[in-house]
Write a structure and sequence with these properties.
Length: 128
């Protein structure tokens, strides 16, 4: 593993999964987002240098996957501890960032802690 300082332990675990499967990646890549109020920078946790098809995650692991369909290659990953807050509402900040990036053509897949546990046991990249 590289000498990378990760912002969260889940990000380090995701990096270990990608390294184990020999999937090249870059960490903490910033993109400029233009909006009516000016421009701002948004960071994506992982940019895969070669898009991959991701294992399908059972609904028992994650009730709903927010992001691109897993029937197509994924290149941008955003790691979140969980997608729902304590009230059961969707994490608004994560979805807002995802929508802003999508307008720029960057389709992120939000990876949660329970999904990382699944990928650690079952692998990340779909094998045909």
């Amino acid at each position: 593993m590289r000498d990378t300082l990760f912002a969260h332990p889940l990000e380090e675990r995701m990096a270990n999964i990608l390294d184990r499967e020999h999937i090249p990646w870059e960490y903490a890549v910033s993109f400029k987002i233009c909006s009516k109020g000016g421009s701002k920078s948004r960071e994506v946790d992982f940019v895969l240098l070669h898009p991959v098809y991701v294992q399908s995650v059972p609904e028992s692991v994650e009730a709903k996957i927010y992001g691109p369909s897993l029937d197509r290659p994924v290149k941008y990953l955003e790691v979140k501890a969980r997608m729902l807050d304590s009230d059961g509402r969707v994490n608004g900040d994560a979805l807002k960032q995802q929508k802003e990036l999508y307008k720029r053509g960057i389709r992120t897949l939000i990876i949660t802690g329970s999904m990382i546990e699944f990928f650690e046991k079952n692998g990340f990249e779909r094998k045909w």
